[in-house]
Amino acid sequence: MDIRQSIPSDYAKTLDTDGLRKRFLVERIFEADQLCLTYSHDDRLFIGGAMPVREPVVIPTSMKQQTGTDYFLERRELGAINIGGSGAITIDGERYTVGTHEACYIGCGSRDVQFESDSAEQPAKFYINSAPAHHAYPTRTITLDQAVKETLGDAKTSNRRTINKYLIPDVLPTCQLLMGMTRLEENSLWNTMPCHTHERRMEAYLYFDMADDAVVFHMMGEPTETRHLVMRNEQVVISPSWSVHTGVGTGSYTFIWGMAGENQTFPDMDMIAMKTLR
Q1: Which of 7, 71, 130, 260 could lock 46 by a disulfide, CB 3.0 to 4.6 Å apart?
Q2: CATH number at residue 233
């Protein structure tokens, strides 16, 4: 269990490259037959991955120090998006099939959660976000076709992209967790620009579908004190509410975003004028 404390913006701007990476970058998400979790104090979000290869991966009940509850999802909800081969999640004895680029929402109060792959040669890779929850909403799966789609940007500005929204109110009810997957079109490298902040919620990004020698320069920091992190395939960045979040890659990539905070209004963004950036 990796624990990340909240970092104020005036302290973050004093950090060097190693300091920024230590506090905001999550380098290990997927390991064979392991549950890898990072606990961010920003909106109490768990970030992690499960990659079952030879055996199922189970969420343990022994995390009372972090959650203060008898089992992990007693007062939490969880979203999982599979970026690997086909697999399944068994929740309190009921098995849910989750294919590639499909999602599963697991409601508050679910006790036993087990991740499986259909094939060891092409294992499933379940990317996980979990946020505190106050109500038990139904568990269900969401296919890529069922996700709400929004295409934005322009090839002229290298940011033509389609946002696939899996966990949003138009698809299913959740307490606060929002998740989706953004896929850039060919020759588009910016994931959003002009950029914005989310003063009322934090966000985490998983970058993937990247070539071995490709990187994404993830922009962060206050609009007038920008910094960057060099991201590689299947790494996550924690983006606090005070930070801009945008990025540009050296080649094509896809990313999964997850949000938790005050509201579930997807367009609630504080846009940053290009002339403000420094």
Answers
A1: 130
A2: 2.60.120.10
